[in-house]
Write a structure and sequence with these properties.
- It is a single chain.
- By secondary structure, the chain is α/β, with parallel strands linked by helices.
- The chain has 11 helices and 12 strands.
- The protein has a 6-stranded mixed β-sheet. Strands 6-7-8-9-10-11 form a 6-stranded mixed β-sheet, covered by helices on one side.
- The longest helix is centred in the first third of the chain and has 17 residues.
Length: about 350
């Protein structure tokens, strides 16, 4: 178990939409500010680099090709300069950083994943997670991920895990982190997530839905929750709407997500952010102990002779090459004897 008490920061911040380099620099500035204010862990929103593809909900697929091309071009590689800058900022400031990004697939010019990394206070990547299943309209943007990122990192400040947006609705994904002794759970979300046009009722309430899922997980796992959503600024709004009044109306009417913190009973703690800025909460890991006495679903309050859960954490790849085959084909007697 790590140090019992530390400060966590939720970056309720707008990226520089579709500019991954500038967004990375903005993230580095936020990391430095949070570190100066005493934070040991800084969490950013879903797809912070280069922004969330809200446009996929607002345009028919056959009218969104240009939006996708712009978004693809602005997405980043896991070993690219943008992630490297964030890693350096984490190391320079001695803090842990969780950040969401749209990840380019090196095997495909058109393939993307919805990804998140947890970076150590020395700049090392501790967890590289790709969202298991893209949600609703996101399937037009991102491909399915895999279980390789269903990992809880054992750090000096505690055991840290996380899931991306709708994954927090999946009991099995959440349970896989609980079983690894998760003490701090990071849930990352977009700034808005439209489900209906504004003239209809029952539009998706981001704040309420995120609070329900996060509180359930914190109560069940007896862990702390950092719920961090993005902020939609005017630059992103204009880039998405392209001066279309109907699109602007949907964006403006869509409920905004907030960023907040929860304790191991599911109750609120620390700041809740509605405007752009950094929220803070003190986390005392000792608070996770007492609730475990009531119901510890990964120990005495379960029946492992009845329930048997298996998780495949292998990384998915499009092909598996058997090394040496190509060389053998070029140097075999049959190949050497072939006429020119």
């Amino acid at each position: 178990m790590g140090n019992m008490k530390f400060w966590a920061a939720a970056a309720h911040i707008a990226p520089v939409y579709l500019d991954p380099g500038a967004s990375a620099e903005k993230a580095c500035s936020v990391i430095a500010e949070a570190a100066r204010n005493g934070a040991s862990l800084v969490a950013f929103s879903e797809s912070f680099l280069p922004g969330f593809p809200v446009w996929a909900a607002l345009y028919p697929p056959i009218q969104s090709h240009e939006h996708f091309k712009r978004f693809l071009k602005a997405s980043v590689y896991i070993d690219g300069p943008e992630i490297e800058r964030v890693r350096k900022a984490a190391s320079d400031n001695g803090v842990f950083v969780s950040i969401g990004f749209s990840e380019r697939n090196p095997a495909s010019v058109g393939g993307l994943w919805n990804s998140n990394v947890l970076i150590s206070d020395t700049g090392q990547i501790l967890i590289h997670h790709r969202k298991l299943v893209a949600t609703f309209f996101e399937k037009l943007v991102w491909d399915p991920g895999d279980g390789a990122g269903l990992v809880v990192a054992n750090t000096r400040i505690g055991r840290i895990g996380g899931l991306i947006c709708g994954e927090n609705t999946n009991p099995l994904a959440r349970y896989s982190l609980m079983t690894q002794g998760e003490q701090v759970h990071i849930s990352s979300y977009p700034p808005i997530w439209p489900t209906r046009v504004p003239t209809e009722s029952d539009n998706y309430d981001n704040r309420a839905a995120n609070r329900i899922r996060a509180s359930a997980h914190c109560f069940e796992a007896k862990c702390f929750g950092i719920i961090v959503a993005g902020h939609l600024d005017e630059v992103a709004r204009k880039s998405i709407a392209l001066d279309d009044p109907a699109i602007e109306a949907i964006i403006d009417a869509s409920p905004r997500a907030t960023s907040f913190f929860l304790g191991p009973t599911g109750a609120a703690t620390g700041d809740e952010m509605t405007d752009e800025g950094i929220g803070y909460a003190q986390i005392d890991l000792d608070d996770c102990v007492e609730p475990k006495r009531f119901h510890d679903v990964v120990a005495g309050y379960n029946r492992f002779d009845i329930f048997d859960v298996t998780v495949n954490r292998m990384r998915r790849n499009p092909i598996r090459f058997l090394e040496g085959r190509a060389e053998d084909a070029l140097t075999s007697p049959e190949a050497v004897a072939m006429p020119e």
